[in-house]
Every structure is written in C-alpha cells, then in structure tokens.
Amino acid sequence: MTELDPVIHAQARLRVVATLASLAPDDRIAFPRLQKLLDMTAGNLSTHLRRLEEAGYVTITKTHEGRTPATYVQLTGTGRVAFDQYTTTLRAVLGGAS
Amino acid sequence: MDDETDPAPGSAAEALSIISAQRRVAWQTVPSSALLFLVWGGAWLVGYGALWLSADDRGRPSVAAAVLAVALAVAAVATTIVHSVARTRGIAGDSARQGALYGWAWFVGYLAMGWIISALGAAGASYEVVGLAANSTAALVAGLLYLAGGILWRATAMYVLGAWIALVGAASAFAGLPTSYLWLSLAGGGGMLTAGLVEAVRRRAAP
User: Fold this and answer.
1) CA B24 → CA A12, A38, A94, B176, distances in Å?
2) Interchain CB distance below 8 Å, B8 and A11
3) Do B6 and A29 touch (CB under 8 A)?
4) Does B207 lie at the interface with A, CB-CB under 8 angstroms?
5) Which of the ends of chain A has fewer CB neighbours closer than 10 A, N or C?
6) Cα distance from B115 to chain A (closest Cα, Å)?
7) Which ranges of chain B have pLDDT less than 50?
8) Under 8 Å CB-to-CB from A48, ≥6 apart: which residues?
9) What CA–CA distance (Å, rounded) separates B190 from B183?
C-alpha cells in the first residue's frame, strides 16, 4: 500500500479516528461514551488516544461537571485532514487495484 | 504497522469497511429523525383523527378525544426528550448547543401559539374560528421549525416535510371544522409518517 498514515492505519486507532470524525467538527465526546461506542477497555483506549494526541490528531480536555471530573476527546483540524487524506488514499488504492 | 498490539487492517477494503462500520456506530450519538417523525406522525394521525371522529354536528370533539390528543402530545414530547438526551449523552460542543436551542424554539413556538389562541377567544372569536386558528397555527409552528431543522442539519426530507405541514395546515382552515382535524390527521400525521419511513429507508441504504 502506498503511504498510508501509520498513526491512523492500525485497526484500533482507525476505529477511534473514524468514530471521532463522524461527529460534527466542533463537537467533543466524553471519554466513557467514546469507550462505550468503541467497546474498548479504558486502558486500551487511553493508550491509543495518547498516541493520537502525540501526533496532534486529537485534543484531550480535562474538566469538571459539578464535582465530577470529566474528560473530553476531540479530533483536531489536523486529525480531520489526516483522516480525509487517509480515506482518499484508501479509495485510490482500491480503484487502482481493480 | 509499528505497533504489535494494534495491527494494520489487512487491506484497503477492510479499512474502508471499518470506517463505514464506525460511522454507523456514531449515528448512536445523533437523535433518530426517523423514529421521531414516526412517533409524532402517529400522535397526529391518532390524536387529530380522534378529534375528527368524535366531533358532533357543530364540529366539537368529545372530551375523551381531546384528553387522548393531549395525552398523545405529552407522550410524544416525553419520548422526544428522553430519546434525544440518551442519544446525545456525553457529546458536547456546537451540536449540543444547537440541539438545545432548537428544542427551546419548539417551546417558544407553542407558547406563542397558545397566547394567540387564548387572545382570539378572549376577543370574542367563535368556537370555529378559535378551532381553525389553533389547527393552522399548530401546523405553522411545526412546519416552520421543520424547515429550520432541515436547513440546520441539511436534511432534505425534514425541509420538504416542513413546507408540506405549514401549507397543508394553513389550507386546512378553508375546510372548516371538523374537517380541518381530518386534514391534520391524514395529511399532517401521514406526511410525518412518510418522512419517517423515507429517513429509515435512507439510513438503511447508506454506505
């Protein structure tokens, strides 16, 4: 395959990024809700998110709702562009292969 | 690729199918317009249908039919709120704000409509005038808000439904009482049910 972004091109991280990319551009999602949508363990999801955060593809915001701490995850503009590029490349690969 | 714990998808086709599967999963974070159109379509069909069926020769529905219509409306409001809150739990940002403002717009619309109808009655409008005004303004408020929703969420079916409800509701006033109830039941409720089915089929066919 030609130059697929290695940060996204991994089964679990692809699922994370694809889910975040399906939200509206300025939306963020609470960690537990994202975890439920992905059906991943908290530890596993945290690991993938850290990797995505290092690449600048997601931002993780820690906040408080009343007295309970809450963590929100959002795809960055860079992350969205990278994901669009990734899907474009996939389609090109598929189109070229057939 | 570089991760032992997170292998790359086997092929481009597999990667694309992962993406489309996740897109479907993410729909769980958005209220289902198909479900809500079906709930409201059913409420209008049965509620206004009961008002029409029970109307006497002067066009007055029975108390039982009026109670049923109000109960259906309350149930539909409750379903809408519970469903929307459950679906959007944990989602923050622009769309949450938009959704909340949109919800309040319905409240404002029907509050204003209630005042207009009360004022017409207080000003001496006849039973039929009050009834026709209530039916057509109820449809106008719903129609305009569906139009707005269609614009907001780029939802064509919702926009078309809004135009249909507003115009059918307004035209129903020419039919007089109790026929106006029948218009709202069949054309109004029926229109919402149709939009609900269209949305459900479209969702199923989406990649």
Assistant:
1) 16, 12, 22, 46
2) yes
3) no
4) no
5) C
6) 37
7) 1-2
8) A12, A13, A16, A40, B6
9) 9
Do A94 and B16 make contact, defined as CB atoms within 8 angstroms?
yes
Of B6, B12, B16, the CB nearest to A1: B12
CATH class of A11-97: mainly alpha
Say if B20 falls within a structural domain. no
pLDDT score recorded for residue B144: 98
Q: Identify whether B5 is part of a domain.
A: no
Partner A contacted by B124 (CB < 8 A): no
How many angstroms away from the CA of B2 is the closest CA of chain A?
A: 8
Q: State pLDDT tens for residues A6-28.
A: 999 999 999 999 999 999 989 99
Give the tens place of pLDDT for each residue, A49-91. 999 999 999 999 999 888 889 999 999 999 999 999 999 999 9
Total number of domains constituting chain B: 1
A75: chain B residues, CB-CB within 8 Å = none
ipTM of this complex prediction, to 2 decimal places: 0.90
CB contact under 8 A, B15 and A29: no
What pLDDT is attached to residue A1?
47
Q: What is the pLDDT of residues B139-197, one digit of tens each?
A: 999 999 999 999 999 999 999 999 999 999 999 999 999 999 999 999 999 999 999 99
* Contacts of residue B145, Cβ cutoff 8 Å, sequence gap at least 6: B102, B105, B106, B109, B162
DSSP code of residue A30: E
Domain interval for residue B143: 32-205
